[in-house]
Amino acid sequence: MRATRFLxxxxxxxxxxxxxxxxxxxxxxxxxxxxxxxxxxxxxxRIAIYTDDFGQLSRYREANAALGQPAxxxxxxxxxxxxxxxxxxxxxxxxxxxxxxxxxGGQTTPQxxxxxxxxxxxxxxxxVIILAGTNDIAGNSGPMRNEDIEANYASMAELARxxxxxxVLASVLSVHNYTEKAKDFFxxxxxxxxxxxxxWLKDYCGKNGMVYLDYFSAMVDDKxxxxxxxxxxxxxxxxxxxxxxAPLAEAxxxxxxx
Length: 258
Description:
By secondary structure, the chain is of the alpha/beta class. The protein has helices at residues 16-27, 37-45, 47-52, 61-67, 83-86, 90-93, 109-114, 116-119, 134-138, 146-162, 183-188, 191-208, 215-219, 239-257; strands at residues 6-9, 12-15, 77-81, 99-103, 127-131, 166-170, 211-213. It has two domains: 1-30, no CATH class; 37-257, Rossmann fold (3-Layer(aba) Sandwich), CATH 3.40.50.1110. The longest helix is centred in the C-terminal third of the chain and has 19 residues, at 239-257.
């Protein structure tokens, strides 16, 4: 049992360890600025998630428990990713298909790795499509080198392979700065880093017998940016963007199953 000393505080008596902890918390350094006010505000708003449920396992826990095993002959597919996946209404573009959306807005690859077992492996899909990386480049959950992102991809790939799940790795989408609300997203995601990560993804898939899903090339304009008409905010595809992505995803799924 903890030996407790009490310190007087007005009319109240507080345990000494509470007083000391409070003082230490008040002395803790502030979270370093990223240089982007919007991103700083976003990261500050996520502190409770980062400390209480880093992978956000609670998001799909109940839905997964209610799902059950795939039916005989069912080609279940998990779309696994961040907000670009989370905001995609799969039933509108793949009607009647046993495709599950397991995207969570704002997530980075370390968060996705934490929930990979619950939200992918335990669902026993035939195929998983992973679309990630853009938030890592932006630094949503902290600074990330491309090498760190690649390591997280490789860990998820190895887990999928160990459980007999076919893997599709999707390219990181380009971004644009053609609208006012797109400028922050664009500044946080240097095009050179996106190109470098996509080059690694394509090479990794080729060396390991996995399918590379190239959304990037189909959605980029002559300046190397995401076509303006495909995303109002420069980052998240709209219905026109999803219309391009859907058949590419379907072809990649078929190739993975073959």
